[in-house]
Amino acid sequence: MCSIQRPLDTKAQVRNAVEAEAILGVLALCESGQLDLVSSDTLVFEAERNPLPTRKRFAFAVLAQAKLIVRTDEEIERRARALQAQGLKTLDALHMASAERAQADFFCTCDDRFLRRARVLGIAPTQVVSPLELIAEVGP
Question: What is the CATH classification number for the domain harbouring 35?
Answer without folding.
Answer: 3.40.50
